[in-house]
Design goal:
Mean pLDDT: 76
Bound molecules: zinc ion
Largest sheet: 7 strands, mixed
CATH class of the largest domain: Alpha Beta
Radius of gyration: 21 Å
Helix content: 25-40%
Length: 250
């Protein structure tokens, strides 16, 4: 027996013992529709439930996770959903004609109690202040995590669109804000689109093309009344999207 397999065996024994002594229960959810080859393992430990999801079945798992969450809530258990690979690209899916890379965040948003109405799009710009590459997706996402914020979409310099938060959820991108018609808390009824840029930088033509495609796609899905910049809805606090040429948005 190699050293590694011995170590693994010891770890398995220790974990099993831990489960036994901590009174942890473990149950496995298996999916019957055949879409997913990998079983989802659910562990319930002292009031927190961790659901380990499989890479290529995120959507399916979210549905299952929601069911499990409801069950757990009824039992008074709080639930945390653990992403398979927090920093990796989980899957690619397209909303109508626009290619979007799913890269869902685990923080910086809330799930509304009832379905929300979306009628506003807010454009932002940001970059990674801390890393060596200001346009690193993982660096920017980390920054959002650190500040407890997010946006629904992030467009990189090449025009690749990442989905960070699902449209149905309330992403924390606008902060204290007021829509052109006077409504406050713009987060509640808007989608936030972040585009990578620095204060002094210019947006790329690929970004203009991607943001136009994305807005067009969103307009097909929702009755959009306003497409505004962050600086329009929070003029005292915000100046982004920096150097954005509004003439290039149709
Ligand atoms: Zn902003």
């Amino acid at each position: 027996m190699g050293l590694l397999s011995m170590l693994v065996t010891v770890l398995i024994i220790l974990f099993s013992a831990g489960y036994y002594f901590l009174g942890t229960t473990q149950k496995e959810i298996s999916l019957s529709n055949g879409e997913l080859p990998v079983p989802i393992t659910t562990e319930i430990t002292k009031g927190t439930e961790i659901i380990d999801t499989a890479r290529d079945a995120k959507k399916l798992i979210e549905t299952r996770a929601e069911e499990t969450m409801k069950e757990a809530e009824n039992d008074g258990i709080s639930v945390t959903i653990k992403a398979p690979e927090k920093t990796g690209v989980v899957s690619t899916k397209s909303v109508s004609d626009v290619a979007i890379q799913n890269r869902l965040m685990q923080s910086g948003f809330s799930v509304p109690k009832s379905p929300r109405t979306i009628d506003t799009i807010v454009l932002h710009s940001s970059y990674d202040l801390n890393g060596s590459d200001p346009y690193s997706v993982s660096g920017i996402v980390k920054e959002y995590e650190d500040y407890g914020v997010s946006a629904h979409y992030l467009i990189d310099r090449k025009g690749i669109i990442y989905r960070l938060v699902e449209d149905k959820n309330i992403a924390y991108h606008a902060g204290v804000s007021k829509a052109p018609d006077g409504r406050k808390n713009v987060n509640d009824f808007s989608l936030g689109i972040e585009m990578m840029n620095t204060e002094k930088g210019q947006f790329t033509s690929e970004q203009y093309s991607a943001v136009n495609d994305l807005i067009a796609s969103l307009k097909k899905q929702y009755k959009i009344k306003f497409v505004v910049g962050h600086s329009d809805i929070a003029p005292d606090r915000k100046t982004d999207p920096w150097n954005f040429d509004w003439k290039k948005v149709k």
